[in-house]
Amino acid sequence: MITLEQLSFSNSFGRLPEAFHGRLQPTPLDGAHLASFNAAAAALIDLDPGEAGRAKFVDCLNGRHPLPGADPIAMLYAGHQFGHYVEQLGDGRAIILGEVLNRRGERWELQLKGAGPTPYSRRGDGRAVLRSTIREYLCSEAMHGLGIPTTRALCMLGSAEEVYREQIETGALLLRMAPSHVRFGSFEVFFYRGEHERLRELADYVIEHHYPDLWQREDRYPAFYREVVARTARLVAQWQQVGFAHGVLNTDNMSILGLTLDYGPFGFLDDYQPGFICNHSDHHGRYAFDRQPDIGLWNVSCLAQALLPLLDPEPEAAVELARAGFDLYQEEFRSAYDQGMAAKLGLPEAQPGDDALAQGWLDLLASSRADYSNSFRALGEFAADPGHTALRHDLVDRAAFDAWARDYRQRLARDGMAGDERRARMMGINPRYILRNYLAEQAIRTAQAGDYREIDRLLALLQRPFDEQPEMAAYAAPPPDWGRRLEVSCSS
Ligand code: AMP
Ligand code: MG
């Protein structure tokens, strides 16, 4: 275990030419203090969790004291926002301190979110408010607990600094970590500017550091593109299975590593509504829950467009390769989704007809507005012991359930797995605890009143989302009335 000063910085992205980023220093927040620290993320960089107790820890993250070895930069990118190309975005409120290599040689980029203005802030203040910082901090760790690729969160600071949104709030700082924060939009900016050599430099950087197996291949760019496509498809399939809506799937929020990135107005499904829109500002439902698979494909096609100059020197051949990527996305999504849904139903392997069985179950949930996560959990009890029909009472159309359950029992009988084993498997894939909006809201309200303990409680809970944790049973409950109508907007 090492101290903050002993972190081994390597800063490969910072060594790319100035065209890719801007150098700057974080602007300290007034009255910054540690709000929560995540020992699980600290372990990824071998950092002694005791470091969190040092006054210098806060000062180093808050920019009052330079962190030895760090070389702070903000990253340039562009992106398609709600379908329209915006030619310059970039890290408007995020600052990469640098990358550290851990004992295993793994690379972790340390990024501050909310650290003040950058060359890309446009009219923004470079700050993040406490409520959105809590949401990202908790959700990224909750996603990791669910086994879904994501950026991680080391800690968050609260502050006394006033930040102006619809009302006056206080600023906060998140330290998040990922092997890289490069986005689809990082490529788009150079494609649309016609700077194809920069495009190649960026692709080479990402392949060399993050897809090293492809580095030696002659077809490294098409192979890289296919790998990003496949990872994106599998990521979206995981979101759909767990009932996660990202909320702002702009191409600048799409990770080139296939990670869930940039948590804003996200939401987990409470009752099952396929058309759930979690982002209050998304008036047309572009990023509704059930549109995410198509949006993933749309975003992959934006990436393909940006990579065309690299895919093949012959434009027609490049377009063919790009198109093949769209087919690959659909195949990967379908197979990951079907396999994952079969597993959620307690079936070790997806077989023909299982997709209809899964859809039948989802239709039942939709027509009853049943709680998505809790219904799958209850299905685990039913599958292990079909005499156990508590589940039936939650569904409005009992006759439809009985008809579906007949087919389901027959399907279960066909693979002959023992009830106990099936139950254990289902409890290991269908979470008991998710970051419901009202749970995040409770932590936000108490934190705004100066008490951060609920953040730590939720963090510990969500790091083990499949375990029963009986003393925490209340956190599995569907939202109370006040928690159903919460609106989450992009303003953060
Ligand atoms: P987001 O919706 O958080 O993914 O942000 C979209 C773009 O707006 C990114 O370029 C952000 O860096 C920028 N941005 C968001 N909030 C702020 C802010 N308070 N100050 C400066 N830039 C911001
Ligand atoms: Mg973003």
Would you mind describing this structure in some detail?
This protein has 492 residues and is an alpha+beta fold. The protein is 42% helix and 13% strand. The protein has helices spanning 39-44, 55-61, 130-145, 184-192, 196-210, 220-242, 292-311, 315-344, 354-368, 372-384, 390-394, 398-415, 419-427, 437-448, 453-462; strands spanning 21-23, 33-37, 73-75, 79-81, 84-86, 94-101, 107-113, 128-129, 152-164, 168-178, 244-245, 267-268. Strands 2, 6, 7, 8, 9 and 10 form a 6-stranded antiparallel β-sheet that branches. A hairpin with a 5-residue loop joins strand 6 (94-101) and strand 7. It is globular and about 65 Å long. The two termini are 35 Å apart. The mean pLDDT is 97. The chain binds adenosine monophosphate and magnesium ion. Adenosine monophosphate binds at residues 89-93, 121, 124-127, 248, 253, 262, 264, 490.
Defining traits:
single chain; 492 residues; alpha+beta; six-stranded antiparallel β-sheet; two-stranded antiparallel ribbon; 15 helices; 42% helix; globular; binds adenosine monophosphate; binds magnesium ion
